[in-house]
Amino acid sequence: MSDTQKPKINSTPVESEHDGITFEVIEPEHTGGKRIITSGVYLVPNLITTLSLFSGFYSIILSTSGDYYRAGLAIFVSAFLDGMDGRAARMLNAQSPFGEQYDSLADCIAFGLAPAILIYSFALEPLGRFGMACAFVYAACAAFRLARFNVQIGVVDKKYFIGLASPLAALLIACSVLVAVKYIEPMTSVTAWTWFFAAWAMICGLLMVSNIKYYSFKEFDRQKVPFAVLLLAVLAFGIVLYNVPVGLLAIGVAYALSGFVTTLRKKF
After folding, report:
1. Residue spans of beta strands (DSSP E) within 46-205
2. 115-151 burial, b for 16+ CB within 10 Å, e for fewer?
3. 10 Å Cβ neighbour count for 219?
4. DSSP code of residue 8
5. 3-state secondary structure of 187
6. How far from 193 is each of 84, 126, 179, 218, 245, CA to CA, in Å?
7. What's the DSSP call for residue 214?
8. Which of 49, 61, 76, 161 could be cross-linked to 214 through a Cys-Cys bond (beta carbons 3.0 to 4.6 Å apart)?
9. Distance in angstroms (rounded) separating the CA atoms of residues 171 and 73
10. Which residues does residue 140 pair with via DSSP β-bridges, in sequence order?
11. Structure pTM?
């Protein structure tokens, strides 16, 4: 067969698209069941992820400056934006491997490093190296949780989270600090509250890497619920309005405990 008769195969490697000068992202995507190579990134969801990353970064700056209340609020903003970027990607059909990985890296900073520095700067610094170790355990567990979540996508039931989700663990840390700032004196020495926060950081971290099942609420908007659930939701909303940090902390603790109930029900 001559060269002119041989079938032509498009075997141009992806690396040939790079000229060594421009900044570009080239990744595989699935469109209509076909795997194609595309360049560029989706603007809206990745921009929201960037804002979430900035909120986590800003929380770290505030924590090191001693502004613990606003540092906790910045984590709340980051958690809100983290929920929005996924919804925006699904609404705009703008999901991509780059967006998934970028979101996980941003979460590692916003929900792993930022809460660890917040609780260390606020309460654990008087404990010295032990306080540093407790804060690091939380940060490391957040990284483990995100890595495990990435490799289990498409394998586990989407209805449940395996282990406490990192944004929720970060909110537990942030809520506890917000409540403590309002009702407890600044911790400049080792007290009973210092040891409580050391244990709290460890518990929140270990819950993330546990095998406890937590309801994900991803299918909640499509389901009908008993009328009593609506009444409970209104009651919870009223508690939050009365005292936002205390109410959110109470709801977060109740959700963290609900995982044990869900796991035991599934087991027995």
Report:
1. 160-162
2. bbbbbbbbbbeebeeebeebbebbbebbbbbbeebee
3. 10
4. P
5. coil
6. 35, 11, 12, 36, 18
7. E
8. 161
9. 9
10. none
11. 0.82
Burial of 172 (0-12, 13-18, 19+ CB in 10 A): buried
256 touches 164 (CB < 8 A): yes
Query: Given the structure tokens 């002119």, which residue do they identify?
Result: 4
Strand-pairing partners, residue 230, are: none
Can you read off the two tokens belonging to residue 110?
A: 């916003």
What lies within 8 Å, CB to CB, of 77 at 6+ separation is 52, 55
Question: Cβ contacts of residue 9 below 8 Å, gap of 6+?
Answer: none
Taking only the tens of pLDDT, the chain with its 268 residues reads 445 454 444 444 444 455 555 566 766 665 555 666 666 677 788 899 999 999 999 999 999 999 999 999 999 999 999 988 888 888 888 777 788 888 899 999 999 999 999 999 999 999 999 999 999 999 999 999 998 888 876 666 677 788 899 999 999 999 999 999 988 876 777 888 999 999 999 999 999 999 888 887 766 556 676 777 778 788 878 877 778 888 889 888 988 998 888 888 877 7
What's the sign of the alpha-carbon dihedral 82, 83, 86, 92?
negative
Structure tokens at 196: 């409580």
**What is the rounded distance in angstroms from the CA atom of residue 197 to the CA atom of residue 176?**
9
CA distance 181 to 253: 18
